[in-house]
Write a structure and sequence with these properties.
The structure is a single chain. Helix 2 links the parallel strand 2 and strand 3. The longest helix is centred in the first third of the chain and has 17 residues. Helix 1 packs parallel to helix 2, helix 1 packs across helix 10 and helix 2 packs parallel to helix 3. This protein is globular. Strands 7-8-6-5-4-3-2-1-9 form a nine-stranded mixed β-sheet, with helices on both faces. It has a three-stranded antiparallel β-sheet with strand order 10-11-12, with no helix packed on it. It is of the alpha/beta class. The protein is built from 14 helices and 15 strands. The protein has two domains: 256 residues, TIM Barrel (Alpha-Beta Barrel), CATH 3.20.20.70; 70 residues, Arc Repressor Mutant, subunit A.
């Protein structure tokens, strides 16, 4: 069920959210589908199995999301925002591929009716191999989904068992081929650093992913979140601790193999044809997140929904489903821009560092240590620096 929500202010009774930083940013949509057939031991996302959703019906849950979409359009219009077409749409979860094509089509149509889409929007759906089929992929293409993000995590059955993933890795190749045959661009999501995963195992997973011919690979280091089953297994000694040094080797190996395969890095954990939706997050664009626990950012207004599907469903039927809101100031905005943009290949502008009053000596030391590189008025992390990007941001802001 995920970690606790942050604290925040109550949603304004006026139902207005002021455009604190203007209204000229592109507009993006995230839809959170919180259902899963089983809970993976490492997962800290806001997800629920059939036993955890009470009286909620998965079959008509899209109706609550559509109601939230309709209300959000009224809020934005009343708050003085122009109607902005949707640039990207991302169905995440949970397991979005548990929704039927009819449910997804209804959500897409509601967004089209209330906001419209750009001429060539990116519409992505996250899918798990066990809840996906070639026919389903054809149905997705027919309703306008044009990008598939396949949650593979590993091609090593032993690693999948440790992570409590239930799919068979041999399913993936046929599904990726079917997705490409249906006209979808494809991304494969991987996780490295599971307890007992060797460097050779990770290398085999990378090579399997490359052999698929996918246009994009995400490779994230496993984070052991407090409160998860995996965290308890490590604490009791059932599983060994993760190894930060080995994880660094695995990241470097991913960069080497994926780059050699023609998938260039564009963000610390991503290689290949960039996801326009993820780029919107890294560039601090505006997005509205619909569904339980979804987070939104609209021109300096950051807010998040109630987590449980039942409380979300009840709230959206009678009032706002927002659990809390905060209004960020310019300094916070600049700090977040540094944190997000430094993760990307383009890096940050030196003018942003000036706005944050970053000490030039700190920057020079990172350049000397070959963790940062400067080109013109841009500063970016080196291959070595990608391993320490969070620490670099912290030092830039505090030294």
């Amino acid at each position: 069920m995920g970690s606790a929500l942050p604290l925040g202010l109550a949603w304004p009774e006026s139902n207005l959210i002021p455009p604190l930083f203007g209204t000229d940013r592109s507009f993006h949509v995230y839809v959170h589908i919180p259902f899963c057939e089983v809970r993976c031991g490492y997962c800290d996302f806001n997800t629920y199995t059939a036993k955890e959703i009470g009286s909620v019906s998965q079959a008509d849950f899209h109706d609550a999301i559509i109601l939230e979409i309709e209300r959000s359009a009224n809020i934005l219009a009343s708050s003085g925002y122009p109607v902005r077409p949707i640039s990207t749409l991302f169905f995440g979860g949970g397991t979005p591929s548990l929704f039927s094509d009819t449910q997804l089509a209804a959500i897409i149509e509601a967004l089209r009716h209330n906001f419209a889409f750009e001429a060539n929007p990116e519409i992505t759906l996250e899918a798990n191999p066990e809840s996906t089929s070639p026919r389903y992929l054809e149905e997705l293409a027919a309703i306008g989904v044009n990008r598939l993000s396949m949650g593979v995590q590993s091609f090593d059955s032993a690693v999948l068992k440790t992570l409590e993933r239930t799919h068979r890795p041999e399913l993936v190749a046929d599904l990726v081929a079917a997705a490409k045959g249906a006209g979808l661009s494809t991304s494969v999501d991987l996780i490295y650093g599971a307890p007992k995963e060797s460097l050779d195992s990770w290398k085999r997973t990378l090579n399997e992913a490359i052999d698929l011919g996918t246009g994009h690979v995400s490779a994230y280091s496993l984070i052991v979140e407090p409160g998860t089953k995996l965290a308890r297994q490590i604490k009791t000694g059932e599983l060994p601790e993760t190894d930060d040094d080995l994880d660094a080797e695995k990241h470097q190996l991913a960069d080497t193999l994926l780059s050699e395969a023609g998938l260039s890095w564009y963000e610390v954990s991503n290689w290949g044809e960039p996801s326009r939706h993820n780029q919107a997050y890294w560039k601090s664009a505006d997005w509205w997140g619909y569904g339980p626990g979804a987070h939104s950012h609209i021109s300096g207004n950051r807010f998040w929904n109630l987590k449980h599907p039942l409380t979300f469903q009840q709230a959206v039927a009678t009032k706002s489903p927002v659990a809390g809101i905060e209004y960020i100031d310019e300094k916070t905005r600049f700090e977040e821009m540094l944190m997000l943009e430094l993760r990307t290949k383009e890096g940050v502008s030196t003018s942003l560092l000036d706005s944050l009053k970053v000490h030039q000596e700190t920057v020079d030391n990172f350049i000397k240590d070959e963790l940062l590189a400067k080109s013109g008025n841009r500063l970016s992390v080196t291959a070595k620096g990608r391993l320490f990007v969070d620490r670099i941001v912290l030092d830039l802001l505090t030294n």
